[in-house]
Amino acid sequence: MNWGSWQNFIAMGGYGLYVWGSYVVTLVVLAAEIAALVMRRRGVIERLSTFYAARRRNHETET
Amino acid sequence: MTKSERFSWFVFSSPQTFYPLAGKLQPWFAAAAALLCAVGLYISFFVAPTDAQQGESYRIIFIHVPAAWMSMFLYLVMGFWSGVGLVLNTRLSSMVATALAPTGALFTFIALWTGALWGKPTWGTWWVWDARLTSELILLFLYIGFMALQAAIDDPRRADKAGAVLALVGVVNIPIIYFSVQWWSTLHQGASVSMKSAPTMAATMLLGMLIMALGFWMYSIAAVLARVRSIILERERHTDWVAEEVGARA
Lengths: 63, 250
What we know:
The complex is a heterodimer.
Chain A: H1 6-11, H2 16-62
Chain B: H1 15-47, H2 61-88, H3 91-123, H4 131-152, H5 156-170, H6 173-183, H7 203-235, H8 240-249
Helix pairs in contact in B: 1-7, 2-3, 2-5, 2-7, 3-4, 3-5, 3-7, 4-5, 4-6
């Protein structure tokens, strides 16, 4: 498949809105999921380390 | 060989053993997903020819069909692990089911979205309330309902059970989606790929679609493994090994 020029590639034979609307939204949705997964992991580790630190402090004051 | 020496796959049903295994496998699935999607996209745009009837608008097929397949397949996998969790009372199975839902919902959304954008130029409408489209929309609501139900129940084990019942009841929707194009008259075309007949599309079109489907498959595994690792840490936080794991990371 030879598109000839960038303009032709973007235009997609007049269906640019539909084709690129599909691909761009798919890309955005998957990128958002990846970002959410990374943030969730960071959040869990941060929350749990605060939780364990607090638990250690409690043990120290008890004994 | 004594019983304790024999290797058993059940070792991986323990969150503690599965967590590091998932961590080791996840990057490989992510890399495979990136590679397959890159090759798939190249074939989709630069190898596959223009369609004689639909022009270039048909290129939406390379994400629409794989996303629709994944939306149904992930639901079946979610139903399977929900059922295993319900029957065998294994925590990890339920965690995997929980981890599958958001990715399944995303692929359902992508299938509906790309379907609308494909429907407009080919059928002249973004949406019709026909069997295929409506049952796929119900699939999205099943995923969202599963997530909402689990989020609404504080006790994770009860949330697992309630979610599992909903997921299993919803499995009945999958054959309805799949066979809807045969059972009811619909605007939607029939199955793109069939085991019974020769492919109706150009070989490069079919190849691009299958490679994209494999890429989405690998992506789903990578995403679900990453998510289940976070779920394991959250839900096993009372254990010593998670305290050690988090201590080593922080």
